[in-house]
Automatic annotation (TrEMBL):
Protein name from the UniProt record: Stage V sporulation protein R
One Pfam match: SpoVR
Membrane-spanning intervals of the chain: none
Domain called SpoVR-like C-terminal: residue spans: 554-605
Domain SpoVR protein-like N-terminal: start-end pairs: 13-354, 485-552
Biological source species: Halopelagius inordinatus
Length: 669
């Protein structure tokens, strides 16, 4: 009975949302978005927690991790530590799940948020890496994987615990992929085939001792093994550890006391888990961009375009405040602020470009001769576009009949008495160009001083390649040519090509850091406390980039698959000034041994402090300087051993200055 009641509630909720879904999609397209089709589903809070645990999908492979995630989410929801309003997956069509207990204002906010996510999924090239030219059907793929792994667990010839143990080992490596390449390109054969152990093959051939001594003497075998090992050495570290293990990994057979070939089911499971790791990589790589993009368009649609009704606005404002106000590194807040900064700087450059083409205006005298109050007044949207209502439609009709800002077909329908609720949805009678003028960022109260703050260096840069610099006689004439859509057009270009690392690198400036009060903090060993370290944008950028490079995880790569000609695996931590958690690293090596079948090694660098130096530094209120020492941790299936690292290998794992797995000259750690 209870289930029927809940299903009836969900059905009624779904029916009430049909209009908001249809209108939100139309508004999103008017604003220049191109979302995947979205199927919306209404679920109760327990179903929502299950979906969150499964990463937004209804069917996944059986594993304890889903139950753990579900329990954490359920408790978080139960004790008011954060409510999940929705979840949407990257698929074509996308599927969005709305919680039936949400208020109508919350549901509208979620729907507008989802439409922007679906646009990002469809148009960002990092998501396109996974599908290429094929059609995306992630739900079906994940369901197939779930069914296949379930069948292995139910196979009487396969120990279920072995399957679970194998999945645990593979999941320890799920982020050790080459996320900047496609799933297929990562298997490009940069590594060479493992050399065959010729001594072992000779033993299996049962060759007589005399023949073996005459043809295959020990010196020749040693020389052959050395040459083969050199030929098999990786030319470059290989980031796709999962692929390397899939190609060359074995399993340790306790009965035989040696490593043997993987079972077919093990290779199949590795293939599936690696494919899923590549599918989810784009979401991890664009968390700030994607959530910021969705938060930006949601805010514009719900607030500025009044998709939230007057009786819903307070509820929506509370909803938005909770999302943007959550503590810690908040991708919604950081992303939204960066997108707004991109929009503002692009619009500022567009206006400044026009003003610099006015006779008598140069980059040197710009701030002295420009009347910024006049500029602010002249870039205001046309009153007929800014305040569209049913009673003002005649004002729009008086525009030139080819004016690109007006949706003439809808306007004619509305004036003819058709069912077009202009008071509720004023955007229906405007085009993309009209909406761009209506929401031009530089006229918003919070941005009124943004044009005035433009630096002379930026003005000089704009003027450098400007040939037609006396195009206009007056400021009025120049501003009449402003492209109000410049900011939105630029945002869509960036949305197509960037990920979080490149986004932060390109657009996080000193102006942004100052305006939004960002700073770095660090733990000081001398005082055992945290303190503000810097407000310089370069330092803030370094800190943030560290959190987003390689999903915020240490970068680990394969350096040798036949280390010291013993078929041992040699991994390297690409050290960027941040030490590994030693215990976690050992735990991963234990699991990795299960799917390599032979000893595994991990190179890293540790910081060692002299206790006397620490005490002296504490007295002098400064930080002690550590000594960085290369170490190699080896696990043979039974015990760990730690060795000093060869200088040549230590040099190889030191990060360079060409990417963000780097160790900056003055790192704030």
């Amino acid at each position: 009975m209870s289930t029927k009641r809940f299903r009836l509630t969900a059905r009624r909720e779904a029916e009430s949302l049909e209009e908001p879904v249809e209108e939100a999609n139309e508004l999103a397209k008017k604003l220049g978005l191109e979302p995947y089709p979205v199927n919306y589903w209404v679920v109760d809070h327990d179903e929502m927690n299950q979906l969150i645990a499964y990463g937004g999908f209804q069917r996944r492979y059986p594993h304890w991790r889903w139950g753990m995630t579900y329990d954490r989410q359920r408790k978080q929801d139960q004790f008011g530590m954060g409510k999940a309003f929705e979840i949407v997956n990257n698929d074509n069509p996308s599927h969005a799940f709305l919680q039936e207990s949400n208020s109508l204002a919350d549901q509208k906010a979620v729907i507008t948020h989802v439409e922007a996510h679906a646009d990002f999924f469809r148009n960002n090239e990092w998501f396109g890496l996974f599908v290429g030219d094929t059609e995306l059907d992630a739900a079906a793929m994940l369901e197939r994987h779930g069914e296949a792994i379930q069948s292995y667990m139910e196979d009487p010839e396969i120990d279920r615990e072995e399957v679970e143990k194998f999945i645990d080992a593979a999941l320890c490596l799920e982020d050790t992929i080459d996320q900047h390449r496609t799933l297929a390109d990562a298997l490009d054969g940069r590594d060479r085939v493992q050399p065959e152990d010729l001594r072992k093959r000779l033993e299996e051939m049962d060759i007589s001792a005399d023949v073996r001594k005459q043809v295959f003497d020990e010196e020749w075998l040693d020389d052959f093994a050395e040459a083969e090992a050199e030929a098999a050495k990786l030319d470059q570290p290989r980031k796709d550890v999962l692929a390397f293990v899939r190609e060359h990994g074995m399993r340790y057979d306790e009965e035989e006391g040696r490593a043997v070939e993987m079972e077919p089911w093990q290779k199949d499971v590795l293939d599936m888990l690696r494919t899923e790791a590549y599918y989810f990589a784009a979401q991890k790589m664009t968390k700030v961009m994607n959530e910021g993009w969705a938060a930006y368009w949601e805010s514009l649609m719900m607030g500025e375009e009044q998709f939230a009704g007057t009786d819903e606005f307070i509820t929506y404002a509370d909803h938005q405040a909770r999302v943007l106000g959550s503590p810690g590194l908040n991708p919604y807040k950081l992303g939204k602020e960066l997108w707004e900064y991109v929009e503002n700087t692009t619009n500022r450059a567009e206006v400044a470009d026009k003003l610099l083409r006015v006779k008598g205006v140069t980059w040197r005298n710009f701030h002295e001769v420009i009347d910024f109050e006049e500029v602010s007044e002249r870039i205001q949207p046309d009153p007929a576009i800014d305040a569209v209502r049913a009673e003002t439609l005649d004002d729009l009709a008086a525009f030139d009949e080819d004016d690109p800002r007006i949706d003439w077909e809808t306007l004619d329908a509305a004036r003819s008495g058709a069912d077009v609720d202009v008071d509720r949805y004023p955007w229906k009678v405007l085009t993309y160009e009209g909406l761009a003028e209506r929401h031009f960022s530089l006229v918003k109260p919070q941005n009124r001083g943004f044009l005035r703050r433009i630096r002379r260096s930026e003005l000089e840069q704009l003027s450098r390649y400007m040939f037609d610099d006396e195009q206009y006689d007056t400021v009025e004439a120049a501003l009449a040519d402003v492209d109000y859509a410049a900011g939105w057009d630029r945002m869509r270009e960036i949305r197509e090509s960037h990920n979080d690392v490149t986004f932060l690198d390109a657009f996080l400036t000193q102006e942004f850091v100052t305006d939004n009060n960002y700073f770095t903090y660090e733990f000081t060993r001398s005082t055992d406390q945290f303190r503000v370290a810097s407000v310089d944008y370069q330092d803030v950028k370094k800190k943030l980039l560290l959190q987003f490079t390689n999903f915020g995880k240490p970068t680990i790569a394969v350096y040798d698959g036949n280390f010291r000609n013993r078929n041992e695996l040699l991994l390297g931590h690409q050290y960027n000034g941040i030490m590994l958690d030693a215990e976690e690293a050992k735990g991963v090596l234990e699991r990795l041994y299960d799917i390599w079948g032979r000893p595994v090694n991990l190179m890293t660098i540790v910081k060692e402090f002299d206790e006397h130096e620490v005490e002296v530094a504490r007295r002098r209120n400064r930080e002690p300087v550590p000594t960085e020492v290369g170490k190699r941790i080896r696990y043979d299936g039974a015990a760990f051993e730690t060795y000093d690292l060869d200088p040549e290998l230590e040099e190889r794992i030191q990060a360079t200055d060409i990417d963000y797995d780097t160790k900056p000259d003055e790192w704030l750690s």
